[in-house]
Design brief:
The protein is of the alpha/beta class. The protein has eleven helices and 14 strands. The chain has helices spanning 17-27, 49-61, 75-79, 104-119, 133-143, 157-174, 216-219, 222-234, 236-244, 250-265, 311-341; strands at residues 7-12, 38-43, 66-72, 84-87, 125-128, 152-154, 185-186, 189-191, 199-201, 206-209, 212-215, 271-276, 289-297, 300-303. The strands form three sheets. It has a nine-stranded mixed β-sheet. A three-stranded antiparallel β-sheet has the order 7-10-11. The longest helix is centred in the last third of the chain and has 31 residues, at 311-341. The chain is globular, with a radius of gyration of 20 Å.
Length: 342
């Protein structure tokens, strides 16, 4: 049986903290499988190329099974016929900043969309990590219309992982004898925007204990689930910035690895991905990049249909959608501004 050709993967902002954490996950086979060789392209702005060279040296010293390694500031070299594009680079969020304060990233992504449109394969799978992730992804999708809309996604897996971790820790607190892990928290969901309006939903979540499956709503007090738990997940990014003086890096890279591996390899449970809302079965406005519960098979995602949604959940889902509509409108204004000026 002939071996598969190398998978070409570009990572933007590769010299940053998330990019640095992501490199061994890609190069070692953790993201795409150990048997798949990778043509890895690292894209940075010219001013960061010297720092990027240090990352290249470490990748070399790791003796990974890479088919090719390229570090560049040239978007054509980076995106030419690429299979996977992971957008990590952007203006970083710092202590005291809100997501609305970093809309400068939308302008960066409008310009990067042209490179994606001009040089990437039309089958390219796109993951946006840089915040505001949903709207940055939307900017790419709008600016690269020849690439199918279902090929664009943004990271909400970090929020899902945070939800699982919080539930696991609380369960162990209540049951000190338990050795439940975060991986045994299944069917937790995250709806909406990667922001403080996101809705971490445990309505369908189950904890796989040694004694058997336990519904999250039976395992925990509703006041905690609807209060401290939800608030903690929604504001976790800010708490990490306050604690370490910088945005999440290792956990964000791990979530990006989880996201891409599930998309490519497939899932055996529902996970959360920010994807195009067109045709969704839950009444979310179309034309957004919105986090839904999905399953993945054969390199394609599918929104989980038919979930019962109560009025409270529906209200929280729509509130997050309303925030994304406002962000979409601001991007549309940005895109139409040059034409208006001519």
């Amino acid at each position: 049986m002939a071996s598969l050709p190398p998978l070409s993967v570009v990572v933007t902002g590769a010299a940053g903290a998330i990019g640095y954490s992501l490199m061994p996950m890609i190069a070692s086979g953790q993201m795409f499988g150990e048997g798949r060789k990778i043509d890895l392209r690292l894209l940075e702005i010219p001013a960061a190329l010297d720092r990027l060279q240090g990352t290249v040296m470490e990748i070399d010293d790791g003796a990974f099974n890479l088919a090719k390694l390229t570090a560049t500031a040239d978007v054509e070299v980076a995106f030419k016929d690429v299979d996977i594009a992971i957008f990590v680079g952007g203006f970083p969020r710092k202590a005291g900043m809100e997501r609305k304060d970093i809309q400068i990233n939308a302008r960066i992504f409008v310009s990067q969309a042209k490179a994606l449109e001009d040089f990437a394969k039309k089958t390219v799978k796109v993951l946006v990590v840089a915040n505001p992730a949903n709207t940055n992804c939307l900017s790419l999708m709008i600016g690269a219309p020849s690439i199918p809309r279902e090929n664009f996604s943004c990271l909400s897996r970090l929020d899902l992982n945070r939800s699982r971790s919080q539930l696991c820790q609380k369960y162990r607190e209540l049951h000190p004898e338990s050795d439940v892990t975060a991986g045994e928290i299944v069917n937790a969901m995250v709806w909406g925007n990667h922001s403080s309006t996101q809705y971490p939903d445990v309505s369908h979540c189950v904890i796989q204990t040694a004694e058997g499956p336990v519904k999250a709503r039976d395992a925990f007090d509703d006041a905690w689930l609807d209060g401290d738990f939800m608030s903690s997940v929604q504001k976790r990014g800010g708490a990490i910035i306050k604690a370490r003086g910088a945005s999440s890096a290792m956990s964000a890279a791990n979530a990006a690895c989880n996201h891409m591996r599930d998309w490519i390899v497939g899932t055996d449970e529902c996970v959360s991905m920010g994807v195009c809302s067109d045709g969704n079965p839950y009444g979310i406005p179309e034309g957004l990049i919105y986090s839904f519960p999905v399953t993945c098979e054969d390199g394609k995602w599918k929104i989980v249909p038919g979930l019962p949604i109560d009025d409270r959940s529906k209200g929280l889902m729509l509130a997050s959608a309303a925030e994304l509509v406002k962000e979409r409108d601001s991007v549309n204004e940005m895109l139409s501004a040059p034409a208006a000026a001519e």
